[in-house]
Amino acid sequence: MTAQVVTRTHRRRGLLAAAAVTLLIAAGCADDSTSEQAATSTPAGAEPSAEMDSAVAQRLDDAINATMTKTSVPGAIVGVWGPEGKYVKAFGVADKSTDAPMETDFYTRIGSLTKTFTATAILQLVDEGKVGLDDPISKYIDGVPAGDQITIRELARMQSGLANYSESPEFQQALFADPKAPFTPQQLLGYAFAQPATFPPGQGFQYCNTNYVLLGLVVEKESGLALQDYINERILQPLHMEKTNFPTTNAFPSPHAQGYTVQTADGKEATATDWDPSWGWAAGAMISTLEDLHIWGPVLATGTLLKPETQAQRLETVNAPGYPPDVGYGLGVFNAAGWIGHNGSLPGYQTVTVYLPEQKSTLVIMTNTDIAYEGGEPSTQLATAITEIISPEHVYRLSAAEPSAETTTSETTTPEATTQSTEPTR
Prior knowledge:
two-stranded antiparallel ribbon; 13 helices; 10-stranded antiparallel sheet; 14 strands
C-alpha cells in the first residue's frame, strides 16, 4: 500500500493508494460449459496431499517469525502449496488487547486483490464481444477527462494518466473525518476528475485506483449486473469460492482479526477493522480467506476463466518507474520475478496472492497490519523472506527498499510492453 509513513501527508497518501498493490485455458465463461469446467476441474495450483518437508518448514517458520519481529507485525497467515508439499500456518495474535491467536480460517480484507476480480470481469466481457480492450472509455462512460483518448487496456494497465482520487486532499479529508462513511463510485470519480492528469494517456505509468472504479462501471453497464453480483455469479460461484465476497457496507464476516493502522488523521495507531471499504470499491473492497485465495492464485495466473488469447494479453506487462526490471504490470496483475498475481492493502490489512507457473507453486500471505517498516510493506517483506527459501531463483521483490506496489509516483516514463508467457522464467 504505502511507502514510508512519516508525516500526516504521507500517511494519507499511503492509505489512499491503498485498495491496493502491491502485485500478478478454457474458452470464455459466457456459456454454461465454461462455468462447469471451472467448477469441476482441478485448479492448476491444487495443493499436494503431503505436508512440506520438516526441514524446509522449519526454515519458513524461522524466516516468518524473524520478519514479523523485525516489522512488528501482530499476526500473519501463510499458505504455500507446491512441489515440495503444502505449508499452512498462522502466526502471532489476532487481537493485541486480548492476545487471541491468529487462525488459518480467518476472513480478511484483501484490498487491491479486488482489482484482479474486476479485471477478470472486464476480460470475460472482452471474450463475449461486449467490450474491446482498445475501445475508448468514452464509449461506455461519459464525462471522463480525455475519455476519447483513454482505452480500456490503458485503464487496466495503469497507463491512463488520470489522477488518483486516493491522493485528493478533499477525499482524504472526507475519509478521515468518518472512516465508517460510505462512498459511491461517482463521488470517487468526482475527486479524481477535479485534479489534473498526471501524463497524457498511454505515455506513462501510475498505480491509480481511479482506473478500476471506471472499469467497475463498465462491467455494470455492459453486463446489466451490479459489480458485486457479477463477480459473485460469474467468478466466485463457478470456482466454489464460497468464503469470498464483495461487501456493500462495512460488514465483516467472523472470524476475523483486528486490523491495525497508523493511516489516521493524527497519525496515531488505530483499529480499522470496521472501517467502510466502499472508498476502494472495484479497486479494493473485497473480503476473502486463505482457502479461497489458494484457489484464486492459479486461476488468475493461468487464465482458467478466459480464452487463451485473452489471458495472453492480460500477461503483457509494462515496466514501471521505481520497480526492478523483473517487475511488470499487466491487465490487473503483477509479474514479480515470475510470480504472477497481486498484493493488496487497506488500513489494517495486507495480502499477497501469487502463483509461480514454472514451479506450479502458490503463495498466499495475510497480515493484520499495514504499518510500514523502513519504507516497505510488511506483507512484501514476508513474501521476500518466504520466496528466498521456496524459489531462490524467483524472489518476490518490489524494489531494493521493498516499497508497496500500491505506492503511487508522479514520475512518468514511456514504458515498453513485454510479453510474459504463462510460464515465465527469470
